[in-house]
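FIELD: query
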Amino acid sequence: MLPQTDGDGGVEWKPVGKFKRTTIDVATIKKRFEGFGIDVDWPAIEQMQECRNHLEHLHPANTLGEVAGFVADLFPVLREFIQTQLNEQPAELLATAWPVMLAHHEFFTNTMSTCAAAWDNVGVSELMRPWLDKCQCVECGSPLLRPSQDDIEDGASLESQDESFKYVCIACGHSDLIAPLMIKTLNDAYDYDPRDGGEPGVEECNACDRSTFLIHEQRCLWCGAQLDYQECSVCEEALGQGDQYNGGLCSYHLHVFDKAMRDD
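FIELD: result
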């Protein structure tokens, strides 16, 4: 932007240079906002942007349930921006669109709260609860999952009947086992590629035989089992589940100990 004469003795600012005939994109908006010190929930916006890009190119990568969640996440962002940056009221600025948006957001968040509360008394491990909250329906991708009413009426619990306890998706009505979905969600979060030098973050628990033993925490998120021996009593090397039968020794010092016993 450079100053130029307006022809009447005044000055006006005009853009100078060659400009591409393109619309402003999210990256440019982000730069403008940063320049004005405006901070918004960019992860929510970028999530929706990626979803929109897939839809625009006819290669949708998200289910209808996931899209509903993305849209609901945007409403608090929009409301905050309108009120704090524009000093306007969403209802006045967005007119008839706002009640529709608000209804979707309130329905979604209220249903999420109802679903979450329904799991409180069915025997979900406290350590696995965060992974239950991240679960999505295998059919439609919606996070609106609640425990099966039939299982609740039968007095079943996830703690004692995990091989049969089911969830029901509020969005599409699909029902399936919840325990394998929780375990898969946990393992997907710690997925790794050994070709890139990655190492496993989760392994099968010796106590309950489920793939829920978090290696860096050295405990099972399903049954709560922890290591009896966490480090070698000689060299203080960290021990794993496979070392628990060594009497508190790492494999090397166990070998040294056994060899000394044989030599004696």
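FIELD: remark
The two ends are 89 Å apart (CA to CA).
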